[in-house]
Design brief:
Length: 346
């Protein structure tokens, strides 16, 4: 059994969403950041994730001095609440400059904008006392194969990563892969792609991964395997646990909501590999159902952590010695039933 260690938990302001989707308006009132921070503290979470413009709103229209001032003010607010900033991510997919992609756009001005915006994100991260920046390469893909070269796009991406690594000698970059949405096809769709790109950069030791459960499922992969794969390379620096009902839009359902056995195996992989023992956080990138009433607004976050902790106890109490005997005998039918009955409480 792995040595005992505790887990730390985080979520982002966007995980207390107001319920808007592409087909309808919000179903809950807009709340301030201070309200969201208070909910995080009330739920007993340890850290908050940020996009750069969560930390400094209207970032593109502010001077460097204004950005520094607002980031420092946010840091004080977090310190006063006893909450850490886990990571900061550049929100590049909202800008009119990135309609055709960010780091892989066919437009040199758009690529330059994406790199400069990301450097500002890095500066914000350092002011918030975190060395971790996450890259969700939302629009770095294509709707049309003939419009871009994948090889050239990878080269553009490596150039951008090298610029980021050169901008700050301590920043660590975690790529969050996703196979689709909002683009038809992404250039970095899986953890394997992210690990491969890391090794093309000027400092591969500072480029790693974020695994998201729903994104792995959308790629037709098992999130537990993606966790194991990333940790085999020492590259899993954060993760977004949630759930997904099949190959459709990214649902960000509560962790374990759709596939409890899949969730069990994710927790088992994290425990087996001692994820978190190096200070990494368990982040829940989950959203309340659109039909959720304001008075039940935070239940999805509380439930996700409760499910994680209950499954952690299931992982710790799983009879690994008995399982190994069945594996040695290749009695996978019995192993299958053993897992099911363990989860059902027999």
């Amino acid at each position: 059994m792995p040595k005992e260690h505790s887990f730390k938990f985080s979520f982002g302001p966007w995980n207390l969403s107001e319920g808007a989707d592409p087909y309808g308006p919000p179903t809950r009132p807009i709340q301030t950041f201070d309200w969201k921070l208070a909910q995080l503290k009330k739920l007993g979470y340890d850290a908050m994730m940020f996009h750069d413009d969560d930390a400094v709103p209207d970032l593109d229209n502010k001077s460097a001095a204004q950005v520094r001032g607002e980031a420092k003010a946010l840091k004080k607010k977090l310190d006063d609440a006893g909450v850490a900033a886990e990571m900061v991510a550049p929100r590049l997919w909202f800008s009119p400059m990135t309609i055709d992609g960010a780091y892989t756009s066919n437009c040199p001005k758009a690529r330059a904008y994406a790199i400069e915006r990301t450097k500002r994100c890095i500066d914000i991260a350092r002011l918030l006392d975190t060395e971790l920046m996450v890259l969700w390469l939302a629009r770095d893909g294509t709707y049309l194969r003939e419009s871009k070269s994948c090889k050239r796009s990878v080269e553009y991406l490596v150039e951008a990563l090298d610029a980021m690594l050169g901008h700050d000698k301590k920043i660590r970059i975690a790529i969050e892969p996703k196979p689709n949405e909002p683009m038809d096809h992404a250039y970095i769709p899986t953890i394997g792609h992210a690990v491969a790109v890391a090794h093309l950069t000027r400092d591969p030791k500072r480029v790693g991964c974020v695994m998201e459960s729903a994104h792995s499922i959308l790629a037709g992969l098992d999130p537990a395997d993606e966790i194991d794969f990333a940790m085999a390379f020492g590259k899993l620096w954060s993760l977004h646990l949630n759930d997904q009902n099949g190959l459709k839009f990214d649902q960000d359902k509560p962790f374990g909501s759709n596939n409890l056995r899949g969730a069990f195996n994710q927790v088992r992989a994290l425990w087996r590999n001692r994820y978190g023992s190096g200070g990494e956080y368990v982040a829940f990138d989950v959203h309340p159902f659109r039909s959720t009433k304001p008075e039940h607004w935070t239940a999805h976050l509380d439930n996700s952590r409760r499910t994680f902790l209950r499954l952690l106890e299931k992982v710790k109490s799983f009879d690994e010695a008995a399982a190994q005997k069945l594996i040695a005998d290749r009695d996978y039918q019995a192993l299958d039933q053993m897992v099911l009955e363990h989860l059902m409480g027999k």
